[in-house]
């Protein structure tokens, strides 16, 4: 298949030109600039604020307190971002962080994360996505995948009905073979980054496991198969956290000894 060679060379060149490394040492493909991603994050955050009503000020102060404690231990460049936190009145137990330092937490998450340490696990995880530039990597991977399928279609004459059917299969393979595994990888990586961040800030990392036990109990067993999910299963996440717990506990004890003892009052 000679037509694959130019595409392979082009993809390799693009990868080398946009090569980066995540905080855990994993190689990444990053094609978008930080300015582009930050602008997207700002727009998405503004839209979410228009669509979902804000929660009460007491809930905001609580989440802000936890976020401030974690932001304080970030590396200088990330610590100096203009982190903006909002709490939204929504029952879905969800939280997110966007490029540029925009973070949102739904009140439904406060029903699952019942202590400051459990919520710190959520906040640390979301900040971990930003530190690892997962939004850039995911967008870059999707762009590269779309380009690759387009090149394959043009080069192999797949405009025929049979060819279109094969393209559908290739697209499904790209979804389950590339897009979703990247997302699961991002979630697992953000878990580990968040575990370390919460421990550095003086929050008990053992509560991250309790959080996912709460999530597991609340889900009622309705999750899709792990290989088709954009997130690892709760059990997989617990295993990943426990595998890194010894290091996190050592960091936690050191943080507490140095005076990092956050006391964020739940409303």
Automatic annotation (TrEMBL):
Please verify whether the record's keywords include Zinc. Answer: yes
Which GO annotations describe the biological process of this protein?
A: proteolysis involved in protein catabolic process
- Give the UniProt keywords, A-Z: Hydrolase, Metal-binding, Metalloprotease, Protease, Signal, Zinc
Needed cofactors: Zn(2+)
A single Gene Ontology molecular function, please? metal ion binding
Comment on bound cofactor? Binds 1 zinc ion per subunit.
Q: Which PROSITE patterns match?
A: PROKAR_LIPOPROTEIN
Q: Which Pfam families match?
A: Peptidase_M48
Does the record bear Metal-binding in its keywords? yes
User: Which interval of the chain is the signal sequence?
Assistant: 1-17
Query: Which segments constitute the Peptidase M48 domain?
Result: 62-243
Report the GO terms under cellular component. Answer: membrane
InterPro entries linked: Mito/Outer_Membr_Metalloprot (IPR051156), Peptidase_M48 (IPR001915)
Question: Which family, according to the similarity comment?
Answer: Belongs to the peptidase M48 family.
What protein does this entry describe?
Answer: M48 family peptidase
